[in-house]
Amino acid sequence: MASKHHLLGSRGRSPVSIFVVLGLCCFFYLLGTWQKSGFGKGDRLAMEITKRTDCTVFPALDFESHHKQEPPVESSEPKAKVIEPCDVRYTDYTPCQEQDRAMTFPRENMIYRERHCPPTEEKLHCLIPAPNGWTTPFPWPKGRDYVHYANVPYKHLTVEKAVQHWVEFQGNVFKFPGGGTMFPQGADAYIDELASVIPISDGSIRTALDTGCGVASWGAYLMKRNVLTMSFAPRDNHEAQVQFALERGVPAYIGVLGSIQLPFPSRAFDMAQCSRCLIPWTENEGMYLMEVDRVLRPGGYWILSGPPINWKTYYQTWKRSKEDLKAEQTRIEKLAELLCWEKKYEKGDVAIFRKKINSRSCGRKSANMCESGDADDVWYKKMEACITPSPEVKSVAEVAGGELKKFPARLFAVPPRVEKLMVPGVTVESYEEDNKLWKKHVSVYKKINSLLGTTRYRNIMDMNAGLGGFAANLESPKLWVMNVVPTIAQNTLGIIYERGLIGMYHDWCEGFSTYPRTYDLLHASGLFSLYQDKCEFEEILLEMDRILRPEGTVIIRDGVDALNEVRKIAGGMRWDIKLVDHEDGPLVPEKIFVAVKQYWVGSAGNSTTDDA
């Protein structure tokens, strides 16, 4: 009862107290309404940050290309060591294919045209300048046919190859009519002839190799047929062949069939061609053709157009005797039989061979088989005149190494190397989980940069490609991805090719086999953690800057410690940079580093620096 009387007594409070309570209630109500209206911005932002579970608010980097020089963006962060620009004479510097160093090596077997990288004390520690007037390449598909003269100012091929319609100079641009030495009627007509024998249009053929590619018109015109071609040519007196190819938006690298094995896994390509590539196929006991056989998939096709095919018509033009050319073709065909290749077509200037699907259907009696246990361990390994054994099969109808689905189904289908557990640690389950993870990662990248997946980024490189999930989730006719598997990483490049993607091996302590300014976007996941204590981060970042185009983009996903070191160096490299939290929140130690390379060009005042 006492408590009841107390409660009843409390109702007799003064009117002043009641008005004070009502006033406070009204005040806090109005305050809350004011905050939600958008005027209380500080509290609203705090509320949004509290509610956010992933990084949906991203830094405002400018990913557009503007074709002009802009002043550096001032940063409030501590000043990094400034890395100076190199002298303008290094505008087209290719560290491992420089002419002066190349000429000190033997010419036998094209050794002097192979990779010869500078020792540590001779490496440049400066930023490679773009030439004056450099302009963002034309977007695809216009870029296939036109290149800005200012970007690749070399007219030599327009004179030397004028009759063959490789390239023409028109005003301030080069035009590429689609011609070639062995397809004067154009690449389309040539590919149509090939397609009468090879199933190019149904998705069976996805990856191709062009040995001695010129300006890569074959690969350029195969793009619209959904075929990805890896083209290569040496850096020689045919100025800038590979540079033209990449400027057009076509996959290519500086390379040669010489004394070292090609930087690809076995059974990588569905189709390969030599169009007047002038490779001496019958020399060194057929070593070069055996190397093509190593990288050609069982059931794949090899095309030879040019000497010695159609020698009866061209022997005088080629200034060789009929007997010599006939004997050469005979030797090539005997080598093909030894490799279990069957000639399927010869008409005019073209011969087409098909590799049998397994060695049991071959019937060869004896051959010099390679003894090396790993046909994919090829980095700086000497080429040998031996035949790479195909995986064993249980019947003559089985495809050695496993049958592939047609593209695009093979992009996300389980690759045979995964299904057969041929790569240690990679299972069907881990492969499928990796696909899910990269679908999520690429989705986040597109939130950071809405231009990703558009024609803004044509030439893309994944510097540590893993199973190829980044490229697979970006797949589009608007772009292509060079999937690089570092030589110190798990060897997954065979899986990448089985998905219908392309790439190559590389050691990032050395310069990549390409010209400066050949990629629009570089992606690196876990690369710097991988190379911790292997070589200096500055060397890797300077190489990234060399091959990245002005106003190009870098996306690095790595541990926070590695990225803090990267950020310190990149702060002095004329990059606009931001560090973004992992999509699962700020507590995840993995972060995303995003950068845009500023536009600047070389000038007479640029000088090199020897600072490490």
Automatic annotation (TrEMBL):
One of its GO terms (molecular function) is methyltransferase activity. Its main location: membrane. Its EC number is 2.1.1.-. It is a single-pass type II membrane protein; Single-pass membrane protein. GO terms for cellular component: endosome; Golgi membrane; trans-Golgi network. It comes from the Eukaryota. Keywords: Glycoprotein, Golgi apparatus, Membrane, Methyltransferase, Signal-anchor, Transferase, Transmembrane, Transmembrane helix. One of its GO terms (biological process) is methylation. The chain crosses the membrane at residues 12-31. InterPro entries: Put_SAM_MeTrfase (IPR004159), SAM-dependent_MTases_sf (IPR029063). It is an enzyme of class 2 (transferase). Gene3D superfamilies: Vaccinia Virus protein VP39. It is found in: Endomembrane system; Golgi apparatus membrane; Membrane. PANTHER family: METHYLTRANSFERASE PMT14-RELATED (PTHR10108:SF1104), SAM-DEPENDENT METHYLTRANSFERASE (PTHR10108). Belongs to the methyltransferase superfamily. This is Methyltransferase. It comes from Coffea canephora (Robusta coffee).
